[in-house]
């Protein structure tokens, strides 16, 4: 009697076979999707999120009085970040105000002097008129006495007396005219001095404005709405003018700099739609469009650009920076510096 032996398949082999089939199917799906995507999109993962990260610097030197922000704190435009001890700057403002008041007082005194000198010219003119009238009278007496002398109706002593009176009148008239000229010269001198005082007042007023501006610089404000960077300053610390105190990230303006291969950029155009996947954010696709295409490769912007005029040459595919602007609105979770995968839709 013959017996037949039935071989049983081990369960592990079944599992391995199923896994192999799934791997093959997955690979097939992946390659199909890869070729479909490659035919419709141009991709690069050499891309990062960019944003304006500006240092907030001190405009004046001094000791830090108060630090009013924390690391990575959200701030609004105009919020106070740092205050500097302002006692010295307040005294400078007071000193500049006193200098301005002193110049104004000197101008008032000078205006009074000019007014007094102008009044003196009126007196001088009256003196000239009086001296002129006396001179005319003495000239008439002199003429009459000369005629009487010819007729021998008067003595030589009387004629000499009239002559001396006439000479005195001529001198008085000339002195009155000179006094008027002196008054005019004094007025001109005072007015020129007034111009100097006016210029000095203008300079001191500018110094006062500058002192007030420097006083205002003791309060450091947020230049725009954003998020603060690392906190590296403390109260009581001495800082200098121009010293960076903290960085602030402008979260309202974000874009992507994608470095495409030079063989990929042909046919790209401004406004071309882009799909964006952020490495740190799964299962979410952001949208944007090309805003600008660089006029040269990234290597040309480097400090030491490559020089291929040497003996040995190795051809390297160059990268062209392209600026991509987000069109999606909800991008709060996208942070500056994050890596992204950029897919540019072909025409």
Automatic annotation (TrEMBL):
Its main location: membrane. The chain crosses the membrane at residues 12-36. InterPro entries: MdtA-like_BSH (IPR058625), MFP (IPR050739). PANTHER family: MEMBRANE FUSION SUBUNIT OF EMRAB-TOLC MULTIDRUG EFFLUX PUMP, TRANSPORT PROTEIN COMB. Residues 56-249 form the Multidrug resistance protein MdtA-like barrel-sandwich hybrid domain. It comes from the Bacteria. Pfam families: BSH_RND (PF25917). It is a single-pass membrane protein. This is Membrane fusion protein, multidrug efflux system. GO terms for cellular component: membrane. It is found in: Membrane. The keyword Membrane applies. GO terms for biological process: transmembrane transport. Keywords: Membrane, Transmembrane, Transmembrane helix.
């Amino acid at each position: 009697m013959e017996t037949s032996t039935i071989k049983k398949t081990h369960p592990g082999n079944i599992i391995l076979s199923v896994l192999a089939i799934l791997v093959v199917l997955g690979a097939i799906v992946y390659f199909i999707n890869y070729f479909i995507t490659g035919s419709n999109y141009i991709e690069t993962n050499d891309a990062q999120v960019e944003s304006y990260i500006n240092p907030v610097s001190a405009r004046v030197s001094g000791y830090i009085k108060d630090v009013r922000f924390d690391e990575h704190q959200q701030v609004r435009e105009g919020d106070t970040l740092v205050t500097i001890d302002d006692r010295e700057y307040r005294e400078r403002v007071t000193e500049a105000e006193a200098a301005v008041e002193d110049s104004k007082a000197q101008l008032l005194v000078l205006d009074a002097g000019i007014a007094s000198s102008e009044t003196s010219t009126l007196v001088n003119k009256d003196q000239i008129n009086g001296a002129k009238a006396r001179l005319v009278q003495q000239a008439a007496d002199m003429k009459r006495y000369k005629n009487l002398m010819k007729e021998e109706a008067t003595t030589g002593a009387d004629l000499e007396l009239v002559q001396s009176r006439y000479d005195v009148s001529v001198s008085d008239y000339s002195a009155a005219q000179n006094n008027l000229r002196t008054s005019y010269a004094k007025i001109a001198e005072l007015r020129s001095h007034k111009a100097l005082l006016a210029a000095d007042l203008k300079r001191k007023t500018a110094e006062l404005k500058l002192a007030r501006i420097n006083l205002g610089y003791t309060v450091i404000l947020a230049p725009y709405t954003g998020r603060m960077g690392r906190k590296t300053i403390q109260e009581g610390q001495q800082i200098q003018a121009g010293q960076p105190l903290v960085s602030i990230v402008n979260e309202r303006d974000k874009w992507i700099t994608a470095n495409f291969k030079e063989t990929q950029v042909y046919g790209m155009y401004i406004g071309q739609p882009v799909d964006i996947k952020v490495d740190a954010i799964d299962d979410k696709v952001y949208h944007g469009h090309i805003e600008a295409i660089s006029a040269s490769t990234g290597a040309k912007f480097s400090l030491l650009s490559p020089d291929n005029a040497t003996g040995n040459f190795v051809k390297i595919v160059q990268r062209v920076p392209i600026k991509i602007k987000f069109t999606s609105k909800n991008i709060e979770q996208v942070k500056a510096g994050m890596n992204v995968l950029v897919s540019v839709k072909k025409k």
